[in-house]
Specification:
With about 375 residues, this protein is α+β, with helices and mostly antiparallel strands. Helices cover about 25% and strands about 25% of the residues. It has two domains: about 60 residues, no CATH class; about 220 residues, no CATH class. It is built from nine helices and 19 strands. The strands form four sheets. Strands 1-2-3-4-15-14-16-12-13 form a nine-stranded antiparallel β-sheet, covered by helices on one side. The chain has a five-stranded antiparallel β-sheet with strand order 5-19-6-17-18, with helices on one face. The longest helix has 25 residues. The radius of gyration is 28 Å and the shape is globular.
């Protein structure tokens, strides 16, 4: 109990009680006999009101003080808080029910996961988890339609935890690094390769709420807004800087991604048969950012394994993601760039066993202060 607060409230209640008593005696002309007043005990009254104060503190203020603090990150902070290493752990999929149904229940807030205890992981590998008050991440591998997929499902408490990190720390930097190095530098819980924005002059590029580039002829652009929601402007829809500046999706965007194509939009599979990037008709290592629900996402990568190199076409990739119940899905840079990192470890097999140096990543961060 907060002792100074108790003393203050005690004093206030005592004064109010005495003022009330004085008002009754003077305004209602209540006659109090001497012998009755002799029975009056100030100590009893004080104890009575102390109990009232205790009840207020125990059942009122304590509840208020125990409400979850809202943690929010600033986009201007290039580096996110350091995840607590003790909050990473591994379990067999069949034994993870207690995590889903109890430990992560609060942050899931009634939402259903695609991941479940019945999933047969690739080579019976354990499932990787991270869980704190602000983020839940579960990462695993499984066969889907004959291809090995590496998946990470993430639920965050605040939209600011879905973030973008640029090599060199600023837009337009000439530096390039591999995904795992940038994930470590940014303190990512989970990360994937971005759109390699500095290599291709395409799309409607937004960074830190500022429109940086308009080249919308050839690619779909994915926007992430202040609520953490994904939305899209399709190729050819917005072509001028002036038009882009006035577009509501651009104005609402925290940042954008310029690769594509859009795979799923409003639960509908919209993968195209032709697209300028990503070798859409070929079997190719692929990566996508997926929104399942409010503040609920997946990173999906299919890049094969050493003795099973089968990878999907863009249509097959979109079909697999659509079957997961995706609300929105957007393809990111694939090939050697298709990388999924958790706890500073590359989880998927990377093409040619060598990450490509790129200019940016998309990642999810804890919002707790470092080490929290």
């Amino acid at each position: 109990m907060n002792k100074p607060l108790k003393i203050i409230l005690s004093f206030v209640f005592t004064i109010l009680f005495l003022l009330s008593l004085f008002w009754i005696l003077n305004n209602l002309a209540v006659k109090v006999e001497v012998e009755e007043r002799e029975n009056f005990s100030y100590t009893e009254c004080r104890d009575k009101y102390e109990k009232t104060i205790d009840d207020i503190l125990n059942y009122g203020l304590d509840d208020i003080l125990e409400l979850d603090k809202v943690y929010k990150l600033s986009d201007s902070d290039i580096i996110s808080p350091l995840p607590n290493p003790d909050y990473y752990f591994e379990l067999p999929a069949s034994e993870s029910g207690v995590i889903i149904n109890e430990k992560a229940k609060k942050i899931l807030n009634g939402q259903k996961l695609f991941f479940n205890t019945e999933i047969r992981t690739f080579a019976n590998q354990p499932v990787k988890f991270y869980l704190d008050k602000t983020i839940f991440a579960v990462t695993w591998k499984q066969y889907i339609n004959g291809c090995i997929y590496t998946l990470s499902e993430i639920k965050i408490a605040d939209a600011s935890q879905l973030r973008r990190y640029l090599a060199g720390g600023e837009y337009g930097s000439p530096y390039q690094y591999v995904t795992s190095d940038m994930a470590k530098a940014a303190n990512a819980v989970v990360a994937t390769s971005g759109d390699f924005y500095s290599f291709r002059n395409v799309g409607l590029s937004v960074y830190m709420n500022r429109l940086m580039r308009v080249a919308g002829e050839y690619v779909d652009t994915c926007f992430i807004d202040e609520n953490g929601d994904m939305s899209f402007i399709k190729r050819g829809e917005v072509l001028s800087f002036e038009e882009a500046e006035q577009h509501p999706l651009v104005k609402a965007a925290r940042f954008s991604l310029c690769f594509g194509p859009v795979l799923v939009e409003n639960y509908e599979n919209v993968a195209p048969s032709n697209y300028v990037l990503g070798e859409v008709k070929e079997r190719y290592a692929r990566s996508a950012l997926v929104q399942m629900d409010d503040l609920h996402y997946m990173i999906v990568v299919s890049s094969g394994e050493e003795y099973d190199l089968n990878v999907p076409t863009i249509r097959e990739f979109a079909n697999a993601i659509h079957s997961m119940g995706a609300k929105h899905a957007y393809a990111l840079d694939g090939g050697q760039t298709a990388v999924l990192v958790m706890n500073n470890q590359v989880i998927n097999r990377v093409v040619y066993n060598a990450q490509r140096k790129i200019s940016d990543i998309v990642y999810f961060a804890t919002a707790l202060p470092s080490g929290g």
